[in-house]
Structure formats: C-alpha cells, structure tokens
Inverse folding.
C-alpha cells in the first residue's frame, strides 16, 4: 500500500514545475550577491597582516577613518529628516490637486538624472557667481556671495535636490492610499484640520513614513559622487563610502575596503532596523476604508 | 473635498505652496544652468552668458569620445534590461503563483540589495569580478548592474502578475493549450504592459546607475554617467562648457527614455511600487 506519490506530496506543499521557475533568479542572486557577500566577509577578516580583526581594529582606531561614520550620519540624518518634513505637508496639498502629473514629472527628473548630473549643475548654480548667490544678493538677503560648494552645504543641497523628490513621491503614494472618506468622517464629527492630521492621518501614515524614511535614508547614507564633486572629500564631507572606495581602489587593499563597506552596511541597517522597530509601536491596519 | 476658510489655514496653504514652488524653481534653475552654460561662449560674473555657440557640443563629442561611450552605454544597458527582464519575469511568475516553504527567505533575498548601500555589496562583488578577470570588461559592468535591477523587475512584476486571474490559465489548459502556447498566446499578451513598464524603469535606472558601474568600469566599458563623473572630477582640465555639453547629452539620453517610460507608468512608480488604483 502506497500513499500519494512524491510529486503529489510536493505539489501539495506548493512545489511543482512552476515553483522551479524561481531557480534562475535565485541562481543569479546567489552568484552575484550572496557569494560575493560571503566572500567579502571572509575577505575582511583575512587582512594582509595581523589578527583576523586587524582591519576593523585599524578602522576604529584611526580618527580619520572612524570619523567618517559621524560625517556620513551628520549629512544623511538631517537631510532625510528635512526631506520628510517637507514632503509630508506638500504631499497633503498635492493630494487635493486634480492635475498632479506635471508636478510629479518635474520632481522625478532629479531622481532619474542622478547625483552626478545634479552635482555638476549645482557647481554652476551654487557657485560664487551662480544664479543662487546672485538672486540672494539681488533681493538684499546677502551682502556678498556665500561659499556653498566644496563644503558641507554643497553636498547637503545635492541630497536635498535628489532626496526630497524621492521622499515626496513615496509619501504621495502613501497619502493617496488613504481613503478620503476617513477624513470626511472626522470633519463631520467636528475635528479641526490640526486634529484631523494629528489624530487621523498621522497614525495611518506612520508605517508608510517609516518605510519612506528608511528608503530615503539608505539613499542619503550611500552618498558618494556628490560628496566628492561638491564637497570637501578630504575634510568635512569625507563620508564612509569615500573611505571604503579609497581603501579598495586607491590603496588596492580590498580586504580593508570590504571591511569598511561592511561597517557601512551594518551602521545603516542598525538605523533602518531601529526605525522599523519603532514603527511596530504604532497602529498597523487598513487605511483604505470599507472596500478593503 | 474639505476646504477650511480660516486665515490660519490660508497662510499655511500659502506657505506650503511657496515652499514647493521655491523647490521646483531651484530644481529647474539647476538644470537650466547646465543647459545655458553648455551653449555659452563666455559666462563670467553676469546673469547670462556673453554670447551663444554650439561648438562645445562638437568639442565634447570629440574630446570625450562620446560616440563610443554612447554605444557602449546602450549595449550595457540593453543587455542588463534583457537579462533582468527574462530572469525577473520568470522568477516573479513563480513567486506570484506559488506558496512554498522558504518563499519568505527568497523574497527577502530579492529585497536586500535595495536596502543595503550599493557600495557595501559593490566592493566585494567588484573584488570577485576583478579576480575572475571580468573587472573593467563589458560583462563585469553588466553583472554588477544586474544586482539591483533583477530584484527591481521582480518586485514590480509580482503584484502585476498576481492581479491576472489564474483561472484564465486554467481555462486555457482545459481547452488543451500546452505550456508553450499557454505562455505565448495567453500569458505574454497579458504580461506585456507590466513588462514594458518594468523594463523601461530598469533602463532609466541603469543609465543613471553610477556607483556600481564606476567600481568595475574600465576604459572600454565606461557608461555615459561614469564619463561625466570623470569629466566633472577633473574639471579645470577642460572648459566647463564642454563638460556641461556632455552633461546635456547625458540628460537628453536619460530624458528620452524617461518620457517614453512615463507613457506607461506614473512618475510615482519610478520610486515606489505605488498603489494608485484608487486615484480618480
């Protein structure tokens, strides 16, 4: 007496010919992502000389190196918070617009053009004779041009120009996902605009905002070309990606470069996990009204 | 829609719109500065250049060897799109249709590259590629670009495939369709709009993908954006107008595909898997 065949039993668990179609994708990721990643971890603990942790010890004992973590966070966190703080109110207004397409199309431009192009443009635009300084002098806000390139503020501006549209478009997609009937119900029951925002929208938005924060932060934290082109790559904007790149491709010490890259990933994931962890303290549930 | 008439909310509305307007103005000015400078004969200390010329475009095209760079860029980008499209759609189909043990782990595997900074996996991968002799080559650049683009295709396609009713496939089976004709006559036509959108998005993202390409690009496998980076990095060697002319060429190349992509997707989808069905 025999039970169902192996094929039937597997199919009952969801494994059949169609499931096997997942294999090519998994194979590509295994070869190009998982294997190099594991290789990198091993590579980072087999330094040229010294104990297995020598790379990490070197990184965390050299102020020029470990200072890059603070420099990166000092750029990425304020920019991300500012981007989100701007994105939420603007998304709330744009949500009510009937023709959003022109605005969203303009805002998607810097995201698609990328940081290299934006850095090139900002070098002219923010320069001492650029339109930005000229306008501020014309309106009497400034006496003489301020230096906005090759320092912290240049990189800040580039992260704002590429990061705000990104945060905004993500927030907009979450905000439009909230059923307007919920707001109308709150208004009918006498909630003021402030109350509607704080008591109704914000709790519904928090999960989405947490994800937006993480994705925007990931982008800002990985800042690389604009920190070189618009910043002071040996000084205030020597971010961690510059340190990793220099170790791996300028000093040809891939072991050290990988170690810094892993430190970079760990620091970033710690913040992402912390933010997503905070999210679980808030309401999570449907925001789409009765239709589900 | 609810409108508040109070003076406070009017002021607030005005402030929000002013802020948005200011941002758009600055954004457009940054792009305009590049375009204006690329046509300028001389632009020093004035609002507008002293005169206009197109010669920087010829200079840039020759100096930066842009004809070969543009060809290489498109070869790389289309190869990445083709591979990630074929592999991605097949994988997404399995993930959308079947529920099997370990599925969550596999989905996480495809999410990770989008959450980890590109350099974190880029540097080890570049090291491996250089060791197997692919560093600086065409295929090295293609491989490193597959890491973010394949998951992107998969994550865009999964919800798209999920909304196709599996009973359509079952019905085709009942009427005797084999696997091949099921795929060609039923699935492909239904999947085409989603595939087109996903592939155009990957195309735009790969043209603009700097960090990863930069790590493995050699002299013969540089894409436009990497050449632009080197040009800006070494600015001072060449006239800034020449560099900006190249930036405009890069911009036009990207925007051409962006405009094409926007015929099929909403701008929000470029950054997110937007759930926009409710929008009216």
């Amino acid at each position: 007496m025999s039970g169902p065949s192996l094929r039937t039993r597997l199919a009952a668990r969801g494994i059949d010919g169609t499931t096997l179609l997942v294999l090519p994708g998994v194979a590509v990721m295994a070869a190009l992502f998982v294997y190099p990643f594991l290789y990198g971890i091993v590579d980072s603990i087999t330094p040229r000389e010294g104990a297995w942790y020598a790379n990490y010890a070197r990184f965390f004992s050299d102020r020029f190196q470990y200072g890059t973590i603070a420099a990166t966070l000092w750029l990425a966190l304020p920019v991300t918070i500012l981007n989100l703080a701007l994105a939420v109110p603007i998304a709330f207004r744009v949500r009510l617009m009937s023709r959003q397409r022109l605005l969203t199309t303009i805002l998607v431009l810097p995201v698609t053009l990328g940081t290299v192009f934006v850095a090139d443009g900002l070098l002219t635009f923010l320069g001492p004779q650029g339109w930005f300084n000229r306008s501020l002098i014309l309106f009497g806000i400034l006496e003489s041009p301020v230096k906005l390139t090759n320092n912290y503020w240049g990189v800040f501006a580039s992260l704002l120009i590429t990061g705000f549209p990104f945060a905004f478009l993500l927030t907009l997609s979450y905000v439009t996902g909230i059923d307007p009937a919920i707001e109308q119900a709150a208004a009918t029951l006498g909630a003021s605009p402030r109350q509607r925002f704080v008591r109704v929208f914000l709790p519904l938005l928090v999960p989405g905002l947490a994800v937006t924060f993480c994705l925007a932060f990931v982008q800002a934290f990985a800042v690389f070309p604009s920190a070189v082109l618009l910043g002071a790559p040996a000084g205030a904007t020597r971010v961690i990606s510059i340190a990793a790149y220099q170790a791996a491709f300028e000093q040809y010490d891939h072991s050290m470069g990988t170690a810094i890259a892993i430190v970079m990933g760990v620091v970033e994931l710690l913040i992402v996990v912390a933010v997503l962890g905070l999210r679980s303290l808030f309401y999570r549930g449907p925001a789409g009204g009765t239709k589900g | 829609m609810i409108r508040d008439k109070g003076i406070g909310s009017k002021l607030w509305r005005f402030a929000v719109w002013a802020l948005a307007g200011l941002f758009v103005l600055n954004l457009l000015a940054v792009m305009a500065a590049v375009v204006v400078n690329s046509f300028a004969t001389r632009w020093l200390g004035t609002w507008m250049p002293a005169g206009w010329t197109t010669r920087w475009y010829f200079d840039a095209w020759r100096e930066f060897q842009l004809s070969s760079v543009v060809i290489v860029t498109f070869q790389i980008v289309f190869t990445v799109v083709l591979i990630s499209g074929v592999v991605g759609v097949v994988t997404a189909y399995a993930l959308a249709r079947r529920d099997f043990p370990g599925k969550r782990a596999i989905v996480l595997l495809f999410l990770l590259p989008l959450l980890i900074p590109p350099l974190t996996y880029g540097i080890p991968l570049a090291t491996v590629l250089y060791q197997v002799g692919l560093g600086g080559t065409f295929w090295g650049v293609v491989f490193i670009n597959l890491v973010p683009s394949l998951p992107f295709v998969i994550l865009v396609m999964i919800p798209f495939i999920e909304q196709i009713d599996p009973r359509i496939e079952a019905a085709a089976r009942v009427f005797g369709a084999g696997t091949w004709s099921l795929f060609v006559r039923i699935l492909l036509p239904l999947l085409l709009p989603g595939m087109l959108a996903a592939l155009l998005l990957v195309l735009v993202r790969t043209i603009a993908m700097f960090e990863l390409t930069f790590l493995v690009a050699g002299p013969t496998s540089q894409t436009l954006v990497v050449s632009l980076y080197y040009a800006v990095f070494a600015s001072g060697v060449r006239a800034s107008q020449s560099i900006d002319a190249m930036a405009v060429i890069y911009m036009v190349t990207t925007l051409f595909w962006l405009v094409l992509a926007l015929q099929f997707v909403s701008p929000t989808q470029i950054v997110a898997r937007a759930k926009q069905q409710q929008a009216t």
Remarks:
- Chain A touches chain B through 100 residues (CB under 8 Å).
- The CA atoms of residues 86 and 164 of chain A lie 8 Å apart.
- Chain A has twelve helices and no strands.
